[in-house]
Amino acid sequence: MVEQQQRRSTPAEDEVILTYRRKTFTVAPGMTVRDAITRCGLSPEATLAVIDGELVTDEVVLQAGDRVKLLATISGG
Amino acid sequence: MARGKHPLMKCRHCDAKAVVNMRQHKLALCGPHFVEWVHKQTERFIEKYDMFTRDERVLVAVSGGKDSLALWDILLALGYRADGLYIGLGIDGGLSYSDESHRYILDFIEARGGDLTLHTVDVAGIYGASIPDAARLTRRGREKPCSVCGLSKRHIMNRVAREHGYDVLATGHNLDDEAAVLFGNAMVWSVDYLSRQGPVLPPSHPGLARKVKPLFRFYEREMAAYAIVRGIEYMYDECPHATGATTIRYKELLNQLEESSPGIKLQYVLRFLKAREEHGLFAQVREQLDLRTCPTCGQPTTNDGACSFCRMWERVNDRRIEQGL
Predict the structure, then answer these.
(1) Could you tell me the residue range of the domain that residue B237 belongs to?
(2) Does the structure show a pLDDT above 70 at A10?
(3) Is A43 in contact with B256 (Cβ distance < 8 A)?
């Protein structure tokens, strides 16, 4: 279940927290980065994931306590 | 959380973990090998499409975004004679958009020892109004300033390239940009634009600089990954006027197709170019294009008399006088 939150001060250690722009999402551990991106309503083709300051591939399986920064890659006008 | 606990995809060329997986190429690479791959591919595209040589002077249009800064970084790493051009558009949007963009470019230069040439054009200082102000004063920009912005940037880029004797003007357009523009033009069969779109736009008029897009075969996602891996800080926020832009909607649509068919965006663009080059698609349209010289600025135009840029700025400045601005 994806949960969107505006602010979370004490994230639980048994969940995965993803941030995208000013939004925060929570997903259960065990899913891939790609699935988590999709669950957040984003396109994996237009999103990159960074964990602990490092770029990771979509196939990485998320673990409890992971904090994932999602980056939009689309720009234009 | 130790990354080692995750099942990791390995780099094709070494035992390190991959940081990028490019499904359209079936290629996963670690950071150093990804950078090496981007450099080699860019070099290959520059040569394959006869964009420029190491003896030629290249002017890179830099906006402070990931693509243009990545392009500058790549060309410098490859040893090309590349200088930068920044156009100060005067966009604020509540986040000092233009000032922040400029700052990222200055930081980029400083991080490389400060010994790079950057041409800076302040639109308001030179032409009398910022892009948003000019848009408010013209019918062309009444709904959105993007048309005024695009027209002005194209003119200024060409002017600076010509005035400073650059052989070529390079922009950071990526594959997603090209696919979205192609999609938009094909939707309305804009044959004039379809006849010209490509990685190299030769100077079809003495007043035009050669324009090239060395990144046009890289996905936008790859360029963002390149910027991150190389530690290039860039303007992450979108232009405040780009919200809801048609180009972004087209990119989203094409990415939906890409999700189920990896490589479809790349094939869409490459096969279009092949159809044009090898099968003469839109060749007649290209031949019919009749370019004249603008009597005011000397740049090419399809108009009788002044070009669209000169007409627009004349109107802007007439309105400014009328309104006492």
Answers:
(1) 49-322
(2) no
(3) yes
